[in-house]
Structures are given as structure tokens and as C-alpha cells.
What we know:
Layout: H1 27-30, H2 32-63, E1 68-71, E2 74-77, H3 80-98
Antiparallel strand pairs: 1-2
Amino acid sequence: MASVSFKFAGGVGKGAGSGVHGNSGVHDLDYPVLDKAVGRSAEAKWPEYLKRKADRDRVRREAGVNAVSQSGDTIVPLDQSSAQNREKAMTLYGKALSSPTGPSGGGSDG
């Protein structure tokens, strides 16, 4: 993910770290503020992600299926109709990607 995707307050200025800016060969010296901010952000998000994954895996085990659906905090096995619709959509998307004109269809609107 590009660093421009993150919205950090402030920036990396002369007082933000080692005074070496981008050429030391040591990432922690070159980008002391952003590197640590990204690391702290990711570290804070992992426990919640792992909890949600454990919940999805529990529902999969209990229902004996792989596909699940989530609405808010409720995770349920994907019903047969939704599974068939998802499969059709994925098949059509795969065909569109492999067509010579690409997923847009390449046709004119006129």
C-alpha cells in the first residue's frame, strides 16, 4: 500500500528524527515518524482482525461450509441461492477478464 493512502497529521520534518532524510540506507532513520505510525496502526488493528477471523472460522466449522455472509456483527452460512448467484457472478467476471475487449465489453453505447 502506498504511503499516500494514509492520512497522518504532520509530516517528516527536520525535527522528526535523525536528520538523515532518505539516503542513509536504514529505513528507521530515513522515515522515523511514518514508519512507526504505520506500525502502530497495524499493530492496533490485528487483534480485531484476528477476532473477526476466528468468528468466521467458528461459523464455518459449525455449519460445515466455507462460504459465510456477514451483516453487521452477525455471521451466518451463505444460503444456497446467494452462493449460486455469487458463483454466476464470478464466472461472468472471469469470462469478461479473459475476453479480448476486457471487462468493459469494448462495445459502443450508440
